[in-house]
Amino acid sequence: APVIRFEQARKEYPDGTVAVHGLDLDVAEHELLVLVGPSGCGKSTTLRMANRLVELTAGRVLVEGQDIARTDPVALRRRIGYVIQNVGLFPHRTVGQNIATVPALLGWDRQRTRTRTAELLELVGLDPGVYSARYPYQLSGGERQRVGVARALAADPPVLLMDEPFGAVDPEGRRRLQQEFWRIQRELGTTVMLVTHDIDEAVRLGDRIAVFSQGGHLEQLTDAVNLLAR
Ligand code: ADP
Ligand code: ADP
User: Fold this and answer.
1) Contact 8/1 with Cβ under 8 angstroms?
2) What are the strands, taking DSSP E only, across 131-189?
3) CA of 19 to the centre of ligand 2 (A)
4) What positions does the domain ABC transporter occupy (predicted)?
């Protein structure tokens, strides 16, 4: 069974904009699915349907077989990590505290949280001894993005939604981050939906690529085969 399933999912915003027409789309377990297409074609809306940041106007979305309209959004978001461009780290919390956001909600004890935070910083290539106590303003763009990924993975969510996650990083750093993220995703087996307008990124990262056109139409679904690019 797919981990995420969109069934005739539709979003019409209050002003009448139909961002996504009845979309049918499955995301398989452990798959890294990339949504690609021009700006304004409904990619972010589609992504945000999966964690209920956007409520559907019609149709439904199932996550792990459950209709998410009938799940508690807070509980849902603990199982679904979310990474956006410019990350949205809490500016007055240290890197360690940022990463511990979901563990704190889940009531993890101090030791478990510390161990996990250190593990995650290692995973994204940041020395915990150096970075745990820093504040977001003390980080470069690429470092912030790494922390965003670490924070999203803190409670080991089965699903990760990523919206232009590397968009704010300079081209050289971006290439490296993409490769590292790809390795992390393989290692953890997290099911990922990633939105980008960068076709190069789509080809480099995607197991499959969903090509959107205006109005949230799924134009094409292709298996990504360009493994050499990685
Ligand atoms: P067309 O008018 O040729 O159907 P669309 O852009 O609507 O143009 O559809 C192109 C492709 O997108 C279809 O072949 C189908 O795979 C997919 N598609 C069409 N309608 C939907 C839909 N409601 N939900 C999901 N995918 C769709
Ligand atoms: P993409 O991620 O592909 O750039 P979006 O999903 O952000 O596309 O937007 C799809 C369409 O929905 C666009 O026409 C956009 O202007 C519109 N849209 C997005 N958010 C809102 C909103 N909150 N209210 C009204 N229209 C919106």
Assistant:
1) no
2) 159-163
3) 6
4) 4-230
127 CB within 6 A, ligand 1: no
ipTM of the complex in this document: 0.67
Question: Residues with beta carbon inside 6 Å of ligand 2?
Answer: 13, 15, 17, 19, 37, 39-45
CA of 94 to the centre of ligand 1 (A): 46
CB 220 near ligand 1, within 6 Å: no
d(CA 171, CA 150): 21
Angle, helices 171-188 vs 141-152, to 10°: value is 20
Per-residue pLDDT of the chain (230 residues; tens, 9 = 90+): 899 999 999 999 999 999 999 999 999 999 999 999 988 999 999 999 999 999 999 999 999 999 999 999 888 888 898 988 877 899 999 999 999 988 888 889 999 999 999 999 998 889 999 999 999 999 988 898 889 989 988 888 999 999 998 887 788 888 888 888 898 899 989 999 999 988 889 999 999 999 998 877 888 888 876 554 44
Given a contact cutoff of 8 angstroms between Cβ atoms, the answer to whether 56 and 39 are in contact is: no
